[in-house]
Amino acid sequence: MRDKQQTGPRIAIVGGGIxxxxxxxxxxxxxxxxxxxxxxxxxxxxxxxxxxxxNAVRPLRALGVAExxxxxxxxLDWGWEFRRWQDGTVLSxxxxxxxxxxxxxxxxxxxxxxxxxxxxRSAVPDEAVRxxxxxxxxxxxxDGVRLAFSDGTRTDADLVIGADGMHSLVRRTVAEPxxxxxxxxxxxxxxxxxxxxxxxxxxxxxxxxxxxGRHFVHYPISGGDGVNVVAFAPATDATExxxxxxxxxxxxxxxxxxxxxxxxxxxxxxxxxxxxxxxxRPPLPSWTRGRMTLLGDAAHAMFPFYGQGxxxxxxxxxxxxxxxxxxxxxxxxxxxRYETERLPRTTxxxxxxxxxxxxxxxxxxxxQRERDAALGDADPLxxxxxxxxxxxxxxxx
Length: 397
Fold this sequence. Notes:
Layout: E1 7-14, H1 18-29, E2 32-37, E3 49-52, H2 54-63, H3 66-70, E4 74-75, E5 78-84, E6 90-95, H4 99-104, E7 109-112, H5 113-121, E8 129-130, E9 135-141, E10 144-149, E11 154-157, E12 159-162, H6 169-174, E13 181-193, E14 205-211, E15 214-221, E16 226-234, H7 249-255, H8 261-269, E17 274-280, E18 288-289, E19 292-294, H9 297-300, H10 309-326, H11 331-360, H12 366-377, H13 380-383, H14 385-388
Parallel strand pairs: 1-2, 1-12, 2-8, 5-14, 12-19
Antiparallel strand pairs: 3-7, 4-7, 5-6, 9-10, 10-11, 13-16, 13-17, 14-15, 15-16, 18-19
Helix pairs in contact: 1-5, 1-10, 2-10, 10-11
């Protein structure tokens, strides 16, 4: 039953991750009728750490959940600290504390994905979330869209938002089928308890170690109680994409055995690491069809090398709600406006993230030395200004 204060089209969101829950929160806040259909029986967020740059914090503040989302985050004093794989030579480092706020109006934080999801969930009424609802079919018709679920139930909606990840069912209805591209890389992931972590890893910095064919990232999360570690290496026979897949500490260590001892000490201090193959998709020319649209990874899955996956989903949610609120009587036009605003920016980030894989993994030699020199000559905080200054509540930028 619709809340008496909820108006406009009936909106169904497929997927209750960060993007789907953010969309629900923004739409509910705008007074629109929304229901999230999530296949899991409980809301959980796999993975561990993420970066909340100013462009991600801004939507959280507009939504009124920044305080709860950031309560156990770590504000970074230093960001994008690049180091050489072999000996830890600092290639580039930037001061964030004070500078980030002055340039972009917000700090940059690292956080646990689960804490962000919990904060977003708190802004969505219980009755607007349907768990254990695995969508099996999306059927557009003259009056809207019908969703079918694995338990045999069906529901009708005026609008459908596909926030159901890289393997989105909604995407297969909206766009031409296309398989994800395999990168040839796999990602290792673990969290090291602060008590077991080397002191250097507890600094309020996001550190990236660059080496031939690999790179290694770490930063503190959960109020400094742990260190998030994620590393990228050749996939060999590891082609499973699931975040629940695991490796062994020994396998993880073997990929970085000849790296600086500070890297290997972090690996051996962690628990059983997750390991998944890295895929992405080329940018879509369009992600809206009639009264169906996409959001987050369903629309623009990208490599994690700019730390912008969650941020772009948050931006999508804010812009989508703004467009629908401005034009609730013409939802088709609102969805078209949403795509027009968002697609150029997310396409640019998809392409930049894809190209960074090659740049991060250059073998030692002339190109690597040229890259390292360029890192030292340019301020990453200024170089990424086009990402951080964006305000989803205003016009696209």
